[in-house]
Amino acid sequence: MSIRSFLPGRIGFGTAPLGNMFRAIPDEEAAATVQAAWDQGIRYFDTAPLYGAGLAELRLGEVLTGKPRDEYVLSTKVGRIILDEVEDPAARELGEKGALFEHGRPNKMVNDYSADATLRSVEDSLKRLGTDRIDIVWVHDIAQDFYGDDWVGVYESARTGAFRALTRLREEGVIKAWGIGVNKVEPLEMTLDLEEPRPDAFLLAGRYTLLDHARALQRLLPAAAEQGVDIVVGGPYSSGILAGGSHFEYAEAPVHIVDKVGTIKALAQQHGIGIKSAALQFVLAHPAVAAAIPGATRPSRIAEDLAALVEPVPYAFWKALREQKIIAHDAPVPLGEAA
């Protein structure tokens, strides 16, 4: 089904930072951030076993357990099983992401996209989250950034395992929808070319943003819209660089990205708007995009995100971004071409 039919709004909460991504976050701060999101009306929460080896799920569950289950939408991911056995988090092989969650739990993570592992992963997530159901399940990271040249083989194991298992869970009414959550466009394009199985949506992180959107704009988003596959945009702030941080693609931003962000900031200041508003409203302007899920680790960030969603942005700003070749000439913008 279209996830637009049950998503509670156009903005959700991405919990990757709650897995101690980049830094160790106190439990109290994590809980306060989730509570702030709830108090300010956020009702869609996305998480994953990868995020701190189950830490983000546990932290999210601690807060949501006290909330009425029918009042929020919950998504998590499959592809990694969390064991009781421990390992050095900093020594994990996470492809291009390196020691992304080195401050997370030390529990060993095993990559497994088989049908049996998918069912086990869902059960384990239910326990960590302290809930009786998950609404959307994403097949996580079946792409080049985690598996290099082996990614097609990993994708194939997911196609014959996780895809089919999740299709059955959807048919049985256990979950409402399933899809693929990746940081690359190619696995999603490949999936749209399949006859079966059919996902309901894609979670695309970092590939439809102010800083990187040309490839997704060419084929993926038009094809997804044509086939009725909704897009949820993860990482709308490009790992933080578009929200005042220094990270891009989960690492320190290179000089050319810093320069590009500087240009966007200057134009935003010139037109009297915040760069967060530009980043968030840009991704939501595309008709294929159902929602965006920025992450946060501080309660104050939630209010910033919600304010960015509604701040008036003059069309002249988007025109200036096009003239500076920051955004593609055919990228949809919030006020439309006639503004």
Mean pLDDT: 94
Principal-axes geometry comes out as globular
How large is the count of helical segments? 12
N-to-C series of helices and strands: EHEHEEEHEHHHEHEHEEEHHEHH
- What fraction of the residues are assigned to beta strands by DSSP? 15-25%
Please identify the structural class as seen in this structure: alpha/beta
Major beta sheet, specifics? 8 strands, parallel
Strand order, sheet with most strands: 1-2-3-6-7-8-9-12
Low-confidence stretches: none
Radius of gyration (CA) equals 19 Å
Strands, count: 12
**Proportion in helices:** 25-40%
What does this structure look like?
With 339 residues, the protein is of the alpha/beta class. Helix content is 38%, strand content 16%. The protein has twelve helices and twelve strands. The chain has helices at residues 27-39, 55-64, 115-129, 144-147, 151-160, 162-171, 186-192, 214-227, 255-270, 275-284, 299-310, 315-323, and strands at residues 13-14, 44-46, 73-78, 80-86, 107-111, 136-140, 177-182, 201-205, 230-234, 247-248, 251-252, 289-293. The strands form three sheets. It has an eight-stranded parallel sheet with strand order 1-2-3-6-7-8-9-12. The protein has a two-stranded antiparallel ribbon with strand order 4-5. Strand 7 (177-182), helix 7 and strand 8 (201-205) form a beta-alpha-beta unit. Helix 1 (27-39) packs parallel to helix 11 (299-310). The longest helix has 16 residues, at 255-270. The two termini are 33 Å apart. The mean pLDDT is 94.
Question: How is the secondary structure organized here?
Answer:
Elements: E1 13-14, H1 27-39, E2 44-46, H2 55-64, E3 73-78, E4 80-86, E5 107-111, H3 115-129, E6 136-140, H4 144-147, H5 151-160, H6 162-171, E7 177-182, H7 186-192, E8 201-205, H8 214-227, E9 230-234, E10 247-248, E11 251-252, H9 255-270, H10 275-284, E12 289-293, H11 299-310, H12 315-323
Parallel strand pairs: 1-2, 2-3, 3-6, 6-7, 7-8, 8-9, 9-12
Antiparallel strand pairs: 4-5, 10-11
Helix pairs in contact: 1-2, 1-11, 3-6, 10-11
